[in-house]
Amino acid sequence: MIFSGERVPVPDMSLTSYVLQRAEHNAARVAAVDVAGENAHTYGELASAVRRAATGLHARGFRKGDVLAMLTPNVPEYPIAFHAAAVAGGTVMVLNPLDTTDELVGHLNDAGARFLVVLPSEAARAGELRARSTVEEIVVFGEADGATPFASLLASADAPPAVAIDPAQDVVALLHSSGTTGYPKGVMLTHRNMVANVLQTSRVAPLGEDEKVLAVPPFHHAFGLIMVLNASLLQGATLITMPRFDPEAYLKAIEQHRITRLYVVPTIAVLLAKSPLVDRYDLSSVREIVSGGAALDPEIAALVRQRLGCHIGQGYGLTEALVSFMQTGVPVAPGSVGRNAPNIECKIVDVTTGEELGPNRNGEILIRGPHRMKGYLNAEEAADEVIEADGFLRTGDLGHFNDAGELIIVDRIKELIKYKGQQVSPAELEAVVMAHPNVADAAVVGVPDEEASEVPKAFVVTRGPATPEEIMAFVAERVAPYKKIRQLEFIDEIPRTPVGKIERRSLVARERAA
């Protein structure tokens, strides 16, 4: 059984042409400004800078199919460099500044990146990356020894050479994902993939031209690149960029800039729901909050709605296919990620047999649509493992549709704990552990057990006095016997990715080392 969203035509055009199609209409409106208010670009300035930088890149030998790598946090120049490379016919690889040098060298060489864009503070590191990779030129936002100032590219004419782009085939963005298994792989997104994604976002989470978006989710992640950066520019909103998250600076920025839209990960939602810091700031300008990156606890969502008096909804997708589902203003079931975004088809299949399942039956979630990635860079076999012959993408997530047509995510299939043949969801147990009044954060993994194959172990950060026995008893009263926490360890911090997902693999590695 296939569950489908509404059909909406996807424009057959390049990403930049689509995203900046109303730039002249919004020419005087601020498109992007840093959180300090010192560095701003109007839509007219941004569109002109994109064209001039594209010309500048072409003059330095950048050609169609070449790769420009972005290794910077969220700054106002980010969209200019990104779209300049796209206009020049190139592919932009967005990189995580928190990655190790060895990891970055691997990504650069895998893609054959020729240009690398950094901040002055990263110039020394960029030099090492150039020495060990295919990078030929370093471009810097500002000035640094041995690097080309980005401003020098803007001295070019406002008329870049025409480049023939095939939206359905030409890759405009490279992001990284571990997919359903394994080492991070380059996710290839074509112009059409990105246009479809931005279109979907603008339909399920529309913005007004008067709105101000606090751009905290990193642009090197699909959530930040598509939902925050490009969808905001398409709709004429103003981006206020923050290079890194700090609780007080975040709340201060909302108050000072009169932010209307927040894109958050669950950890920020917890801050908004529970932190006493919130009471020190005026957050009344916030109209809407969109949560992504990881599952949002329904109780936390309810607390945010009650405290801030605005709607908060969560979306679901993955780097290979974002955004696929989104809660809207209509009532949704607790734990739901909403209904299909436009143009999305989804089916649930039995994990073992591949049989298509109907409502209220758990199985693997498969997604198909124009936003689905072209494939993995230099990893055709890995792509074949996750893309079915009929075009559906295997997500590696377990879930079901309810009777209202909403998708309920149960867990990651590969992270399910096998206890005496029973499947136990770490996410479900984490939610129960988090309900304990003296638990601040928690993660659950499966650890080997001679009798049961695996048993659930919880790693817990406390906010008050508690013993392992007390918390395990608390959980045991609320779950089936086979789901009980069998081991518990207190730690100082739960390891998470930049978008808030629990890094369970590091906890498993920690357990093995012990």
Automatic annotation (TrEMBL):
It holds the Pfam family AMP-binding_C. The keyword Ligase applies. Gene3D superfamilies: 3.30.300.30, N-terminal domain of ligase-like. Residues 21-377 form the AMP-dependent synthetase/ligase domain. Keywords: Ligase. InterPro entries: AMP-bd_C (IPR025110), AMP-bd_C_sf (IPR045851), AMP-binding_CS (IPR020845), AMP-dep_synth/lig_dom (IPR000873), ANL_N_sf (IPR042099). Transmembrane segments: none annotated. Residues 428-501 form the AMP-binding enzyme C-terminal domain. GO terms for molecular function: CoA-ligase activity. Belongs to the ATP-dependent AMP-binding enzyme family. This is Acyl-CoA synthetase (AMP-forming)/AMP-acid ligase II. It comes from Saccharopolyspora antimicrobica.
